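Hallway conversation turned thread

IA: we were arguing at lunch whether anyone had actually written out Sulfurtransferase end to end. Turns out nobody had. So, for the record, here is the sequence (282 residues) and right after it the structure tokens. Reply here if something looks off.
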Amino acid sequence: MDTYRTLIDVEALAARLAASAPTVVLDCRFDLADPSAGEAAYEAKHLPGARYVHLDRDLSGLKTGRNGRHPLPERVALAAWAGRMGIAPGVQVVAYDDQGGPYAARCWWLLRWLGHEAVAVLDGGFSAWRAAGQAFEDDEPAPLTGTSPYPAAAKPAMPTVDADALQSALGRVRLVDARNGARFRGETEPLDPVAGHIPGATLRFFQDNLVPGGRFKPAEQLRAEFDAWATPTDRVVHQCGSGVTACHNLLAMTHAGLEGSALYPGSWSEWCADPARPVATG
């Protein structure tokens, strides 16, 4: 069967499951305001065979108070987790959420960072699966036994930049902020102690990648919108509040055929934790 590396639609996923094609389905539903909500929703109903993935426990590392709200996990820990999920080279992974794709995109990016290419986000997520009349389950799959850590690539397969490198590059890269306009302008800040944005950043709210109903825009439309920046892909850096919704913009660019842009994992929550770093508003 086909391998999916960015998005997969409901029909294609349903066909894989019906054919018992090797597929790992990951439920990434999450709510920043209520970290237990996604797991509770999973326990009530989820896609067949799906295993739950928690943003804080599984897709983030240890917080120090200076490295952002969702720092990257250590690659060794991520590889061990991936193995426990049944992920192995060549096995198709499908991640989904019910919030337009940001948490599933974080899972997608992390697995690509680890070196796993056969990973895609379910276009339209949980809602699209439900709207298509597909089946759900409420029982949790048994833990896998005898698994091995994922054989991660020797070097990270997706580029990142840290705060110091980004600050030194301001004005020479296009920094793209995936937060909403009110947070970007500093009019409100519900999650971090300082409001505003990194000087010179471009606003690209992650939901601008979607059409009404929650599916991604066609690749050609996304390509035209990103091409309007007139910036080489390797000079684009993505950030958001904590390195999560930025992955949505990275997924959209990759789906549009524009690979090679970087993630600033610490994002605004790390940046604003250092009072010496510049802040802009408006």
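OS: looked through it. The longest helix spans residues 102-114.
IA: good, adding that to the notes. The chain has two domains: 7-131, 163-271.
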